[in-house]
Amino acid sequence: xxxxxxxxxxxxxxxxxxxxxxxxxxxxxxxxxxxxxxxxxxxxxxxxxxxxxxxxxxxxxxxxxxxxxxxxxxxxxxxxxxxxxxxxxxxxxxxxxxxxxxxxxxxxxxxxxxxxxxxxxxxxxxxxxxxxxxxxxxxxxxxxxxxxxxxxxxxxxxxxxxxxxxxxxxxxxxxxxxxxxxxxxxxxxx
Length: 190
Hints:
Oligomer: single chain
Shape: globular
Low-confidence stretches: none
Largest sheet: 4 strands, antiparallel
Strand order of the largest sheet: 1-2-3-4
CATH architecture: 3-Layer(aba) Sandwich
């Protein structure tokens, strides 16, 4: 098993894993593959601690951590605005949800975590025969790299409906910082 830095060339595989592993009720699960690939390319620039895990040149997991993931996500939204509207209108269940998100952003009711470094994404293809424990291996590698840069904590959020992820984060001794709307904000001291 090899862990190495995630590159722009790996974003297509990240998109494939996203399609395969993300819950279908999430907005990004409705993105076409090429749009997801661009999404990951944008995220890569805001997440300088991004790694993949592979065996025999076959990637089966990835993690993205950084200080500028929101800025990278906003750049993606601005440059793909019309395509995002198409996704919304093809999936009308998101019209109300995204309208509430927009209103919440306008009146600034989002929670600002004190942890500036954010775990943006973790992907593992559980159908791969080496996937057991890959999430923890990837995170431990990333945590070691963060410590080398004197980064002592990180935060992230997860939807309250994602019980599998919540249980995993509790297993790795992450703590809940706050619960806002339907998201749990976690943090971990390194």
